[in-house]
């Protein structure tokens, strides 16, 4: 990471490749900019149409090829956004809502055994 003096005596931060970093020092190429020559990426809430396109793509090609989603579907979303949308909202086996009493009991028992290993505990529910 390098600090560069810009116009009006303002500092800008760049990575080793010379790309500007966001205000928090993170490369924001996925957030809104897109790749050079590519389509600009969309930010904000997902539409029902985008959800349907992503769900159909995952049904056809499976999970794990997130970097190919934009190229193959035309979605104006980066691979990280697509992956998170699938994992947190669209997966068919995703359970939302309150825990049952039985699940609460299992969680308490697992926490007593494992501590704060939440991902491992979630795999057992």
From TrEMBL:
Single GO MF annotation: DNA binding
Alphabetically ordered keywords of this record:
DNA-binding, Nucleus, Repeat, Transcription, Transcription regulation
Question: A cellular component term (GO) from this record?
Answer: nucleus
Domain Myb-like per the UniProt entry, residue ranges = 38-90, 91-125
SUPFAM superfamilies in UniProt: Homeodomain-like
Start and end residues of each HTH myb-type domain? 38-94, 95-125
Query: Does the record's keyword annotation contain Transcription regulation?
Result: yes
Query: Where the protein is mainly located, per its record?
Result: nucleus
Q: Which Pfam families match?
A: Myb_DNA-binding
Cellular compartment(s): Nucleus
Q: Which InterPro entries match?
A: Homeodomain-like_sf, Myb_dom, SANT/Myb
Please give the name of this protein.
Transcription factor
| Phylogenetic classification of the source organism | Eukaryota, Viridiplantae, Streptophyta, Embryophyta, Tracheophyta
């Amino acid at each position: 990471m390098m600090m560069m003096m810009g116009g009006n005596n303002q500092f800008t931060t760049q990575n080793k490749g010379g790309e500007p970093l966001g205000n928090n020092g993170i490369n924001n190429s996925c957030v809104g900019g897109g790749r050079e020559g590519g389509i600009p990426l969309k930010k904000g809430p997902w539409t029902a149409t985008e959800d349907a396109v992503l769900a159909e793509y995952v049904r056809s090609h499976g999970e794990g090829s997130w970097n190919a989603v934009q190229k193959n579907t035309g979605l104006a979303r980066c691979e990280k956004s697509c992956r998170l949308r699938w994992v947190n909202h669209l997966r068919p086996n995703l359970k939302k809502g309150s825990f049952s009493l039985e699940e609460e009991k299992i969680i308490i028992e697992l926490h007593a055994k494992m501590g704060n290993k939440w991902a491992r505990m979630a795999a057992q529910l």
